[in-house]
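Escalated from tier 1: guanosine-5'-diphosphate holo job.
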Amino acid sequence: MLSFKKPPPSGNTGLTGLARLKQGLARARSGLGAAFAGLFRASAVDETLLEEIETLLLGADAGVEVTQTVLHSLRTRLALGELPDGAALNAALRAELLAMLAPSAQPLRIPSHIRPFVILVVGVNGAGKTTTIGKLAKQLQQSGHSVLLAAGDTFRAAAMEQLQNWGARNNVPVIGQPQGADSASVIYDALQAARARGADVLIADTSGRLHTQSNLMEELKKIKRVVSKLDPAAPHEVMLIVDGTQGQNALAQAVQFHQALSLTGVTLTKLDGTAKGGIVFAIAKKLGVPLRYIGIGEGVDDLREFDAAQFVEALFGE
Ligand SMILES: Nc1nc2c(ncn2[C@@H]2O[C@H](COP(=O)(O)OP(=O)(O)O)[C@@H](O)[C@H]2O)c(=O)[nH]1
Ligand SMILES: [Mg+2]
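Tier 2 regenerated the structure:
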């Protein structure tokens, strides 16, 4: 099922990056964005209006921390007489949200002196790990990197076949072992193969579920240790994939993975499937880990480097 819809030849291709992002976030724009747009038309700003913003942010999964930070800033500005009307409120809110996201917008860069650059991909079942790996592999390949994949999800039946079928169709080599094999040893073998072949990037898939959650975390820690035996600097990226439709549950997951594995990057998937979108702010603020990519659909190009200004514009812009 790891097949990607290519953008139709005369469809999405005409759209600029921002227009496509707006299209991908259409549900969030018509949910969160539209609700705010109504408030921004107000001719005066008062505490009642700020409380409505508070309710909207909480309802959009932005979480308590983000909401309180934003509200504190808006109340301060209101008291200073800096929010005469809805338009000023709009500008202040957008600036506040952008300031919160901007430090997290750090794209993944593959330094040429590190080879192979090892990306360990983690996250719960169904988060979008394997599909994201496929999209990322394609994109890296298109930008001139040679990529090798490790089928490290040895727990779920057919997970390796899923990746290998996809690799065969897309000319991306996949290293795997039969189901039930030790995930760490599959990834270790793959790293050796990547070195032997001189591959630029190794992306390792992992399982999202073992018998218990603590088993899973131990397994993932073990993978990190085993990989670092071959290269003390590896994995160079530990990327968590989170399903953006999961709301506060996604935030809790992210915190748990970060505690266990010291994440270096986060990718939020399925943002096309939510009317909320506040989770992006919540995760950025709570984790303080670089937000690498967002997923806004099932096509290869629907995995997009995270750009804070574009994201805020796509949610709230005209
Ligand atoms: N709409 C949408 N679906 C996605 C996105 N990313 C992943 N998916 C879908 O989510 C489902 C689970 O993905 P998968 O990669 O198998 O998750 P895994 O268990 O973490 O490996 C698949 O049906 C994917 O097509 C996205 O950005 N948007
Ligand atoms: Mg998978």
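The mean pLDDT is 92.
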